[in-house]
Structure formats: structure tokens, C-alpha cells
């Protein structure tokens, strides 16, 4: 008996020693290793700022099939960082039974740092066979930075953590006890770049100064997005290292602020040389027998280290100078001149390639495509003639003459005229195929008398002539002034007598004697009923005819009323046999009918005759 008592005391001593160590997770086997009940702090890890209220749950967990009827919790915390403000007891157990709370429970002490609770099922209540939230503990953090562990423990029979079965046996398995941790303070993120000065990091939601290492503060558990930026020519992002939570090999990643400090480094490496050709392709256009202007091709180092290059082309009509260069650091360039010789080439489209080679370059060889379009240009103009009208001493408004290359190749054109009073601007230009340019054509009538004048604009390149006519009158007729003044007159009805279904044209003239544009709504009435209407717009000093077309199928006289003027037309014939005349076809039809009737009468008479 004495040896059993000694064993029990030693076991309790081991449990007490382990659970008093802050943060230690007890690994003490209960008297029955098969027990599958446990206690947990949820959430297991909590981060809070200073002087913040928060809660954690003490949860009873069941990993097997046993039942429990009473529960006790004794939890240690560090009063340097935390204080308890309340402990909530659930109103019901999972069995819908009401907890029977022990006297003076729950209780806590913010000086030494402990919280305690104990209750059981009600007397005779059902046994509990599932896990549940045992209690909710309300904490408030203090102003000190640090970590407080929340440790379940056993001090003595009055200050213990246990779970009792219906036989009042402790069935808590300490291997299934999960303690908690609360971190109090402000998380900080420190970002560095290596090698120094060879790149940058953009942090979403933060302004980063141009110096590293850089430290910023964040909320607990905040997801912070980091973007590595290739800001130094010739250097490229390689990977992230340190406390990175997202991918390490992509320029965009993230860190979760779940600890007091997180340290992350963006690692950059010098890129190999890379060929950049500017422009990336070349296009030449010319007329047959003419060489297009030379073009410049820049060869640059779009990577790091040093780029040395050579080039070659694959067409006899193409040449490049120089054909080699180098000693190009990051973003440095050499310029070359590309020329085309069209000798012996017929009309058409030609293709070639310039191939650039550079040892060690990531994209060597690099090809620049070249296209040559050779064609026969052709001038087209719009309009094909110009007419100016003005009075003595008054220059008419200028007009636009569109000059286009409706052929192929390049059109180099020049414009001339044969009259001192005529001019155009510009007087020359160059047009690719299907390209156009406007020429402003002007007239100066100073010193010219009334009369008609003619001149010609000649455009060379593929010659085109544009006739120009100038009318100068002694005085331009005065245009009406003032507001619109619109009236209608001159009712016309034709024809005034028609056959049924034939068209009758009814028209009226609408004149505007004012200076501004006016409108008029013409309504046609037939026998007092609206037949049709039209709305017209009439410019000042002009007139416009309004025309209606009607047809009627019934014979009779129809009264017409339009713009306050009256008239008539008549539909004759009434739709009988002879309406509109018999005509040749009608006469033939009548003759045929008469013949048929005569023949029929003869047969009838023969049939009724008696022999003598």
C-alpha cells in the first residue's frame, strides 16, 4: 500500500513540474493511456496589439467513444502581458443539459496569472460523449511587448485540469492537451535587397524609401504583397529568401505577419547580354528604278554583362554598315545604316533578313525581317476640276484638292499652275501607295475685271492636269436677310382626268424669301380627309417643290386641298365592261363570243326540225 501511495505522489510531481514550465506542451501519459479526451486552447496562437480585448476558447475534445460528466480547468498565463476580464460558461451542454457550476467558479487572479473553472452535468443529467467549448476566456493585453503562454496544468486537487467519467475517474490524456500562445505587440517586416542597389521591392500598402534594409509595421496576420522590381539595367530578380510565405521564385510573393518579426530578402543576379534591335523590322518602298532612302538600325544590349555582335544579310539588294560592333554594357547601343539597291529589280514585293549574332547572348541569333515594295506610282486627284465664283475685288474661299498615290511604290510629286491669280500649297510631297495629301488652292482677284477665266494645275510624278475655272461678276446678287419667311403656291394637279388605279401627281412650290433656313409642313387633303403629308427644309432665298402621288380605284370627282389651295381630279369609267375602251383585244373577244352563239343556234335549229 505504501509503495502505491509513493508512485501516485511521484506521478503528480512530474505532471506539476512539466506544466509549470511556460510554453511547455505536457507529454504526460495519464493513468489510462487509452483515454481519448483532451483540452485545447483555440485559436492555438493569437497575435494582438497593445491594450486590446480578445477571447480564446478552452475546448474539450473527444477522440474516442468514452463518456464524461465533469470537467475542471486550471490555466496559467503571464500577467506581464495579459489580464483576464471575464470567463463565459456555456448555457447548455451538447446534451441540452444545463452545467452545474461549482461554488466560486469561474475564478481568476491577474496578479499571479491564473484562470480556473469547474462544472459538471446536472444531477442525473445525460453523459456527454462529444467535444464542446468548455468556456470562453476574455483577455485584455497590456502595454508590454512579449509572449504569454496559456498552459493547462495541475497544482493540487483544488487547482487542476481534468475530465471525469461517470465513475469519477480522470480520463484526460495529456498527450491530447494543446496549450496556447498569445503574442502582444506590433509585428514588423524588414525587407532587404542583395546585392545592394541592384533592385527594388514594392510593398502593397506601404511607401518604401530607396534604402535597404527597410522596416515597416503591420497588423497581426496581415497578408503583405511583395513585388521585386528590376530597377537596375542588366540585373534581374532571381529569388526570395528568409521568412517568405508565398512562392520564392516569382517576382510577386507575400508574407503573413504571424510573428513579431519577419525578415525577407530579394535576391538579384546580373543578366546575360541580350540583343535588342530597334526597329524590330524594316520596310522600304520605292518606285521601280529608284532607290529608297537609307534607314538606321540600332543594336542594343537589353541584358547585362558585355554584348559584342556581328551581322549578315541574305539578299543581294540589301547592305548594312558596319557589320560588327560591341563593348556594349546594359542599355548601350550601336547604330548601323541599312541601304537598298533596286538595280535590276522588277515591280513587286521582296523579303530578306538581317541576322545578328552575339556570343553569350540569351537570344542569339536575332533576326530582323526586311521588306521592300517596288511599284509604279499613279496620281489621282479629287475633285478632278475646280470652279470659283466671286465678284470684282473679292477673293473667293480657298478649296481643297486631294492628291493621292493610287498606284504602287513611292510617288514624289510637284504642283505647278499657269495663272498668276492661282496658287496651291504645299507644292510638293512624297506619298506611299494608297496615301493622300490635301493641297489648299487659292485665288487672288486683285486687279481683275468681271469675266470668265481658266487655268490649269499640273501635278508631275505621273502627270495629272486639273482644270480651274474662275467666274468674276460685277456684283454678286444680294442674298435675302432676316429670319425665314416660307410660303406655298402654284398648286398643280396632273392629269385632271384618269382611269381607275392610275396615278395623279399633285405638287406645290414652297419658297423661302427670308435669309435663314426655314421649314414647311405640307398636308394633302382628298375629299376633306388627310391623304399624306411632307415636311421640307428650305434654305433662305430658295424654293423647293413638294410632290405627292395618289391613285383612286373608284370613279368620281375628288376634291384636293393643299396649303390653302384647292383643285379637283376625276376618275372616269366606273370599272364596267367598257371602262377605259375596248381596245383590239376586247373587240376580238366580242367577235369570238358572237360566232360561238351563232353556231350554237344553228345546231339547236337542226335538232328540232321534222322530216316531211
Number of helix segments? 2
Say how many strands there are: 45
Largest sheet: 8 strands, mixed
* Whole-angstrom Rg: 53 Å
Instruction: Note poorly predicted spans.
Output: 1-31, 575-593, 608-612
Helix content: under 10%
What CATH first level of the largest domain would be assigned?
Mainly Beta
Query: What is the CA–CA distance across the termini?
Result: 172 Å
What fraction of the residues are assigned to beta strands by DSSP?
A: over 45%
Class per helix and strand makeup: mainly beta
What number is the mean pLDDT? Answer: 87
Q: What is the CATH fold-level name of the largest domain? A: Immunoglobulin-like
Number of domains: 5
What is the annotated CATH architecture of the largest domain?
Answer: Sandwich
**Outline, from the CA principal axes?**
flat
Question: Any chance you could write out the topology, listing elements then pairs?
Answer:
Blueprint: H1 2-19, E1 37-42, E2 45-48, E3 53-62, E4 70-76, E5 82-88, E6 100-101, E7 107-109, E8 114-120, E9 132-141, E10 146-152, E11 162-164, E12 180-184, E13 188-194, E14 200-203, E15 214-217, E16 223-229, E17 235-242, E18 252-256, E19 261-270, E20 275-278, E21 282-287, E22 295-301, E23 307-313, E24 318-321, E25 324-328, E26 333-340, E27 348-357, E28 366-375, E29 379-382, E30 386-391, E31 399-405, E32 411-417, E33 422-425, E34 428-431, E35 436-443, E36 451-460, E37 464-473, E38 486-494, E39 497-498, E40 503-512, E41 518-526, E42 529-538, E43 543-551, E44 556-562, E45 565-571, H2 583-608
Parallel strand pairs: 2-12, 13-19, 21-28, 30-37, 39-45
Antiparallel strand pairs: 1-3, 3-9, 4-8, 4-10, 4-11, 5-9, 6-8, 7-8, 10-12, 13-15, 14-16, 16-18, 17-19, 20-22, 22-26, 23-25, 23-27, 24-26, 27-28, 29-31, 31-35, 32-34, 32-36, 33-35, 36-37, 38-40, 40-43, 41-42, 41-44, 44-45
